[in-house]
Write a structure and sequence with these properties.
This protein is of the alpha+beta class. The longest helix is centred in the N-terminal third of the chain and has 18 residues, at 2-19. Helices cover 33% and strands 31% of the residues. It has a single domain (34-129), classed as Alpha-D-Glucose-1,6-Bisphosphate, Chain A, domain 4, CATH 3.30.530. It starts with a helix and ends with a helix.
């Protein structure tokens, strides 16, 4: 009986991860500090891209598997994307905004304490794809 309870608990936990709502008001915001920084659960990047950096990044992000726009747009000057892991559907949130000629990106996890560098790797791949 205990085994079935534990299995049900795991299934419910995975369902919550997959189905938990992503509230734009919580995730579509800028951090207090927006300088380059690697963190245990995410990354901050600031890159001189010129004024079209966000538009170029948006094209790359939208082409990334399992990634969708949560809020914002290039014309608004800030976009937040949700990228889900392949197997369990863990959501990661990436907010990018144009600050003059500087593109600023904040990627972070929602669940857990560490993303094992996943957000850093994705953001660095996106930046490489736009030539930075």
């Amino acid at each position: 009986m205990l085994v079935w309870f534990l299995i049900a608990l795991v299934v419910l936990g995975l369902a919550w991860i997959r189905l938990a709502p992503s509230v734009p008001a919580r995730w579509h915001q800028r951090p207090a500090v927006a300088a380059d920084r690697d963190m245990q659960g995410g990354v901050l990047r600031a890159v001189a891209t010129g004024p079209e950096g966000l538009a170029r990044l948006d094209r790359v992000a939208r082409a990334t598997p399992r990634t969708r726009v949560l809020a914002g747009s290039v014309t608004e000057g800030m976009v937040t994307y949700v990228t889900r892991s392949r197997v369990f559907g863990f959501p990661d949130y990436t907010t990018a905004w144009q600050d003059g000629d500087t593109l600023r990106i904040w990627a972070r996890l929602r669940f857990g304490g560490s993303d094992f560098g996943v957000n850093r790797d994705r953001v660095d791949q996106w930046l490489a794809a736009i030539g930075h």
